[in-house]
Amino acid sequence: MTAFATTPDISIGAFRVWQRNRDVFLQLWKTDFLGIAVEPWIVILAMGLGLGQFVELASGEDYVTFLAPGLLALFPMFAAVFECAWGSYVRLEMQGTYNAIIATPVSVDDVIAGEILWGTTRSMINAVYIMAVLLVLTPWLDMVDSPMALLCLPVAIIPGILFSAISISFASVARAMSQFSYFFNLVVIPMFWFAGAFFPFDELPQWAQVLGWFIPLKHVVDIYRGLFAGNLEWSMLVSLVWLMAVTVVFFLLATWSMRRRLIN
Questions:
Q1: Is residue 2 predicted with pLDDT exceeding 80?
Q2: Average pLDDT over all residues of the chain
Q3: How sure is the predictor about 7, in pLDDT bands with cuts at 50, 70 and 90?
Q4: CA distances from 147 to 32, 35, 144, 233, 252 (A)
Q5: Distance between terminal CA atoms of the chain?
Q6: How many helices (H) and strands (E) does the chain have?
Q7: Are the CB atoms for 4 and 104 separated by under 8 Å?
Q8: pLDDT of 237-247, one tens digit each?
Q9: 10 Å Cβ neighbour count for 80?
Q10: DSSP 8-state symbol, 93
């Protein structure tokens, strides 16, 4: 295996890497549980019910209903980002986990694929929990209008892989933990604010809509919003195809970049 191999060398070893991360998570999950459990409720109460009292949408939709698909897109994204950006860097540079693993028959590409698979798993855990919260609140707040909203969960696998791969791509070139501030402020925060999760995307200036179209989270929000409302449109299929294409690109980029970091 060379740093410039064109075909990823992925085997059952990727699953073993995933198992290793799962076992660590099961030992430490209690330290993360409170934040994961409480944060969605705080955001819904503060923004959906608090700020929502002062927000009137042109569509006449309640703001808390508008906010629901955005929350389902945002929280899983953060789970994947923190696991595969900061978490991967710690395992790479501080704990020496990657070097220890590749000293076994597990390949470098197995490590990378396993990390992305684990980041996707963390993202899906958050997605399932957020969906459960939204369903529990629906009788009071009408946050879910259609049973098709449940289709968001299988769709969530794609952005889980995508945001995990994007994060590992940056972790592969970061030389210090402090450099992740650039990733967070220049990549994650723009997606957070300009993906249409908190306000209608089509009310942005035209130039911002053109640039915003390339934000992956925007397409995730669009798909979820359509499924939550039960309105299927061709634009959702375009968004899904675009997400799948970008996911493949970043998966290959993450594999190549981290392989070069570990081998060189």
A1: no
A2: 91
A3: low
A4: 30, 28, 8, 16, 35
A5: 12
A6: 12, 0
A7: no
A8: 999 999 999 99
A9: 29
A10: I
Which of 70, 32, 78, 49 minimizes the C-alpha distance to 200?
Answer: 70
60 Rama sector, left if φ>0, alpha if ψ -120 to 50, beta otherwise: left
| Cβ 123 vs Cβ 167: under 8 Å | no
- Which whole-number Å values give the CA distances from 210 to 142, 189, 194, in the listed order? 32, 18, 11
* C-alpha dist (Å) from residue 86 to 17, 25, 91: 17, 15, 9
The CA-CA-CA angle for residues 103, 92, 39, to 5°, reads 135
pLDDT at 50: 83
257 closest CA partner among 84, 122, 132, 62: 84
Reported in sequence order, the residue ranges of the chain that DSSP labels E, i.e. its strands, are none
Q: What is the mean pLDDT of residues 154-171?
A: 97
Condensed to tens digits (0 to 9), the pLDDT of residues 57-107 reads 878 888 999 999 999 999 999 999 999 999 999 999 999 999 999 999 999
Main-chain phi, psi angles of 204, to 5 degrees: -75, 160
Q: Which residues contact 184 (CB under 8 A, 6 or more apart)?
A: none
